Amino acid sequence: VPLRDLRQAAIAIASVLARSRNTGRVAVLHAHDWHAALAVYYAKALASSVRGIPCVYTIHNLAFQGQERASTTPYLDIAWDAFHSIFEDHGTLNLMRGALIASDRITTVSPTYAHEIRTARYGHGLDGVLRWLSPKLRGITNGVDVHSWNP
């Protein structure tokens, strides 16, 4: 198992469990790209005190999906039924695919990118999943509107 995968899993588990032990109110869990993809799954599957918190997953670059061998699955504390139902992508483990399916909402860096990634040309193999998930996919233009927020 690549050390990178174990490190990402450890960070995701730690962040979700730390949040679950904190007594403050959590409005939403917002994860960005494949590096944080497991946090969405863990929040939904493992941490009972944060289960039910809405999860938003933002795609900055669909080309990097966190794809690994299926044999990595047990080391990341992903149940085999979850592997087959949400993470499996042509026999491999795809962390981004899992986060897309597990999340309540999906955002991208622009409305144009949200449209493009649903096509075969720009979908990097996830275009079918993204078309299926279209009702929860929105593009939000990157950046700050300095007229509405200018500290």
From TrEMBL:
<dbReference type="InterPro" id="IPR013534">
    <property type="entry name" value="Starch_synth_cat_dom"/>
</dbReference>
<protein>
    <recommendedName>
        <fullName>starch synthase</fullName>
        <ecNumber>2.4.1.21</ecNumber>
    </recommendedName>
</protein>
<keyword id="KW-0328">Glycosyltransferase</keyword>
<dbReference type="Pfam" id="PF08323">
    <property type="entry name" value="Glyco_transf_5"/>
</dbReference>
<keyword id="KW-0808">Transferase</keyword>
<feature type="domain" description="Starch synthase catalytic">
    <location>
        <begin position="10"/>
        <end position="131"/>
    </location>
</feature>
<dbReference type="GO" id="GO:0009011">
    <property type="term" value="F:alpha-1,4-glucan glucosyltransferase (ADP-glucose donor) activity"/>
</dbReference>
